[in-house]
Amino acid sequence: MLAKRIIPCLDIKDGRTVKGTNFVQLRDAGDPVELAMRYSKEGADELVFLDITATVDKRKTLAELVRKIATHINIPFTVGGGINSVSDVSVLMENGADKISVNTSAVKNPQLVGELAKNFGSQCVVVAIDIKLFDGVWKVVTHGGRNATDRVATDWAQQVTDLGAGEILLTSMENDGTKNGFAIDITRTISEALPIPVIASGGAGAMTHFKDVFEQGAADAALAASIFHFREIEISALKNYLQENNIPVRL
């Protein structure tokens, strides 16, 4: 069985790490370079870095920040935010990103997923899917959760997989920042239906939540932010707990 991955996420706004609840009420969580270095030392398996206010004029600043982080860490590094083209990805890869994450841009133009897979390889393409419950159905939302779509989460996950995505980053807006646990059922449904890894995101608040999403949710990796940023849970302690509960992790 492959080792389960623990992935801290840095949501970046104006060059600082921020964290909110249900995608709003953002508060400052520190310097992204310092946090990235800390996580690399603490045993994180990967790092995800999402520029939540990415705009064209800030692309150069984002590339510089990516380069600064990449030079200080030795773990795989996924970067997302405002990626709309092959050239956007080239700039980030040249500055040290190992993988890229697309979300709203993929919903607007699904063929982008295929173009990126063709140019950089599926292993570099993570499709982030933000989901919310509408009348009992999990649907895709975009623009940081502000815009609803008619896309059913399971259908969209299958479509981007067929287009060449190498991994899905699945975030439940209902659970995000609540610390009440991950969205287990939909995570399991999507994980079991797809041949590619699924990263569960949204809702981690206790070590048991990670155990649950791996055992019951069939997730390949689990992502969290505030509990790591504010040292509510230490990554090394979490990994020891998971190993004690017979969940394979890299120590």
Brief sketch in words of this structure:
This protein is an alpha/beta fold.
How does the overall form come out from the CA principal axes? globular
Overall number of domains: 1
CATH superfamily: Aldolase class I
The level-1 CATH class? Alpha Beta
Biggest sheet, open or closed, and with what strands and sense? 8 strands, parallel, barrel
Order of helices and strands: EEEHEHEHEHHEEEHEHEHEHH
Number of helices: 10
Total strands: the figure is 12
Helical amount: 25-40%
Describe the structure.
This protein has one domain: Alpha-Beta Barrel (TIM Barrel), CATH 3.20.20.70. The chain is built from 10 helices and 12 strands. Strands 1-4-5-6-7-10-11-12 form an 8-stranded parallel beta barrel, surrounded by 7 helices. A hairpin with a 2-residue loop joins strand 1 and strand 2. Helix 2 runs parallel beside helix 3 and helix 6 runs parallel beside helix 7. The longest helix is centred in the first third of the chain and has 12 residues. It is globular and about 45 Å long.
Set down the secondary structure blueprint.
Elements: E1 5-13, E2 16-21, E3 24-30, H1 32-42, E4 47-51, H2 59-70, E5 77-80, H3 86-94, E6 99-102, H4 104-108, H5 111-120, E7 125-134, E8 137-142, E9 147-152, H6 153-163, E10 167-172, H7 184-193, E11 198-201, H8 207-215, E12 221-224, H9 226-229, H10 235-244
Parallel strand pairs: 1-4, 1-12, 4-5, 5-6, 6-7, 7-10, 10-11, 11-12
Antiparallel strand pairs: 1-2, 2-3, 7-8, 8-9
Helix pairs in contact: 2-3, 6-7
